Amino acid sequence: METVSTNRAFGGVQGVYRHASTATGTDMTFSVYVPPHEPGAKLPIVWYLSGLTCTHANVTDKGEYRRLCAELGLIFIAPDTSPRGERVPDDPDGAYDFGLGAGFYVDATQQPFAQHYRMWSYVTEELPALIAAEFPAADMARQSIMGHSMGGHGALTIGLTFPDRYKAVSAFAPIVAPSQVPWGHKALGGYLGDDRAAWRKHDAVALIEDGARVADLLVDQGDADTFLAEQLKPHLLERACAAAGIPLTLRLQPGYDHSYYTISTFMGDHLRWHAERLMRNG
């Protein structure tokens, strides 16, 4: 693991790191904030998955999480959203919603994407193992996960798949049912092929319909989000959770959009939500 940069912040250390990934076959960059702590202390982890076009840097620069992570004693980890490099195939038309910056947190099975687009394995297996090896303060028994938009989709599907690993799950403006919206049709079809049965494990609503459960969920969604009606459709998650008996706190925020202005506004609420559940399960 190579250290790209470290900076002192609120008594802790904000670092950016790079390593050669076996999952993606590329170099991958990620950020980790470690709050101030006593020597030998073990701290819970919050994973943050970013959305379309983003890297680790978007939330690192604009998420405004460090002050509260320092107060609550939370390690905050932000992976990249896709593999990158000269050999990595992109959307053939250069569109923003597929290819580079749009890995959708799946392991692709379709060519030419199957070799490098293995973000599910990277986020759920390889990067956690690296964190455990390189960050002695990280308590791998206390992990939680959140994300934004495409990353909200990733957080929901990963949290639902590994409910014993992630003690809390939340999302900002998530793609809750990619099987039912244009972004998801393009991404899941392009990465996984035409068999829609293979899509279901990467669709939060479908996972819930198929029996996946978590203790509860928190979702914030701006009502001025231009993607709300066509791509996000939080009412589908609300309906699925109600049918499954999953307590869902869905907050439609008046006047807020899809940007990091919205995320930074409600980041504190999400971190407190995660901290309460991580400490309860400590």
TrEMBL record:
Q: Name one Pfam family in it.
A: Esterase
Q: Which UniProt keywords apply?
A: Hydrolase, Serine esterase
Membrane-crossing ranges are: none
Q: Does the keyword Hydrolase apply?
A: yes
Enzyme Commission (EC) number:
3.1.2.12
A GO CC annotation given for this chain: cytosol
- Per its UniProt entry, what is the enzyme's top EC class, as one word? hydrolase
Catalytic reaction list: S-formylglutathione + H2O = formate + glutathione + H(+)
Q: Does the keyword Hydrolase apply?
A: yes
Question: Which residues are named in the active-site annotation?
Answer: S149, D225, H258
One GO BP on record is: formaldehyde catabolic process
Q: Tell me, what is one Gene Ontology molecular-function annotation carried by this entry?
A: carboxylic ester hydrolase activity
Annotated InterPro entries: AB_hydrolase_fold, Esterase-like, S-formylglutathione_hydrol
What PANTHER family does the record tag this protein with? S-FORMYLGLUTATHIONE HYDROLASE (PTHR10061:SF0)
Physiological role: Serine hydrolase involved in the detoxification of formaldehyde.
Which family does the UniProt entry place this protein in? Belongs to the esterase D family.
NCBIfam families linked to this entry: fghA_ester_D (TIGR02821)
List the protein's name.
S-formylglutathione hydrolase
This chain's source organism reads: Sphingobium cupriresistens
